[in-house]
């Protein structure tokens, strides 16, 4: 009976912990959406003139633009109308392309989506592999890995993109300099250099953080006990090191995966890819505020969703997280 009551109390506490995480994510998106919508109102001068780049418009055209973007209404009323449309995946019309912002972003995701996934796989596999090997080997290997992680972390993405283009496209001619390719194999070939350029910083972060996490687990008492009992080195690393270090690493991986979406702006521009990142850059330069607002809101939503999913997955990877969170 007591155990049943304890189980019910534990489930209620765990459900409350999940509810807090989800509610926190929703509030974050709402606050960010207010700031994103309000940015248009903070433009110096007339926002309509800022969007049109000073082009001469008739009074009827100016009034139509004001109504389209909710500038003829108060802030609260305009925001509620805008966020209501956004919840229906309607981000308005692009002032530059004269088409739906949603369709523009959806069409560009065909390039940005594979690029982000490709880059994430490269960063996670190489970063964690280097981190684990350097933590286990130690000595010269550990120092070399630390130097490589420090250099890659400090290298800006645009520098990596220029260097890769100069060496592998212009110099050696191994990879194409621009374009996204057609078909699976051709697309992977075209996206290899952009994916590597995006993955370099993420690789450095994962290698450094992963090395520290794995090294800490290797020094724990239960690892020494397992070794003294004759458990094989591979089994010790798999069961006691990697598994226990996975929880803190998952948080870093989630953050880096979401940040890759923002990183597409630099890489896609450098490699001439028609993705969401290059669309954001061109929309900022052309003052296409509806497109900028739509991409910004999607980026915030991606960060919040990924971080919330990571938080919800933590208790299943490390039950201590759930116990600690439920107790607060």
From TrEMBL:
Residues 109-310 form the ABC transmembrane type-1 domain. It is found in: Cell membrane. The chain crosses the membrane at residues 21-40, 115-136, 148-168, 188-210, 246-271, 291-310. It comes from the Bacteria. Its main location: membrane. GO terms for cellular component: plasma membrane. Keywords: Cell membrane, Membrane, Transmembrane, Transmembrane helix, Transport. GO terms for biological process: transmembrane transport. It is a multi-pass membrane protein. Belongs to the binding-protein-dependent transport system permease family. PANTHER family: DIPEPTIDE TRANSPORT SYSTEM PERMEASE PROTEIN DPPB-RELATED. This is Peptide/nickel transport system permease protein.
């Amino acid at each position: 009976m007591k155990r049943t009551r304890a189980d019910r109390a534990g489930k209620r506490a765990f459900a409350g912990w999940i509810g807090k995480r989800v509610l926190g994510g929703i509030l974050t998106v709402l606050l960010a959406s207010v700031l994103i919508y309000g940015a248009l109102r903070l433009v110096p001068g007339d926002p309509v003139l800022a969007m049109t780049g000073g082009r001469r418009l008739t009074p009827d055209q100016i009034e139509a633009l004001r109504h389209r973007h909710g500038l003829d209404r108060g802030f609260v009323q305009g925001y509620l109308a805008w966020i209501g449309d956004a919840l229906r995946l309607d981000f308005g019309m692009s002032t530059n392309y004269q088409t739906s912002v949603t369709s523009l972003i959806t069409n560009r995701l065909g390039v940005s989506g594979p690029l982000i996934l490709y880059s994430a796989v490269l960063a996670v596999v190489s970063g964690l592999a280097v981190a684990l090997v350097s933590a286990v080997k130690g000595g010269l290997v550990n120092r070399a890995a630390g130097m490589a992680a420090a250099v890659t972390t400090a290298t800006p993405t645009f520098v990596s993109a220029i260097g890769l283009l100069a060496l592998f496209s212009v110099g050696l001619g191994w990879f194409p300099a621009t374009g996204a390719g057609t078909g699976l194999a051709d697309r992977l070939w075209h996206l290899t250099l952009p994916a590597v350029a995006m993955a370099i910083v993420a690789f450095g972060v994962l290698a450094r953080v992963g090395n520290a996490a794995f090294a800490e687990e290797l020094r724990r008492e239960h690892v020494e006990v397992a070794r003294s009992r004759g458990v094989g080195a591979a089994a010790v690393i798999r069961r006691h090191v990697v598994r226990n270090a996975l929880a803190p690493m998952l948080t870093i991986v989630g953050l880096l995966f979401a940040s890759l979406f923002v990183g597409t702006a630099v890489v896609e521009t450098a490699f001439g890819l028609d993705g969401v990142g290059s669309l954001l850059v061109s929309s900022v330069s052309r003052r296409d505020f509806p497109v900028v607002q739509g991409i910004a809101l999607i980026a915030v939503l991606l960060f919040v969703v990924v971080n919330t999913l990571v938080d919800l997955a933590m208790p299943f990877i490390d039950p201590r997280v759930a116990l600690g969170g439920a107790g607060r």
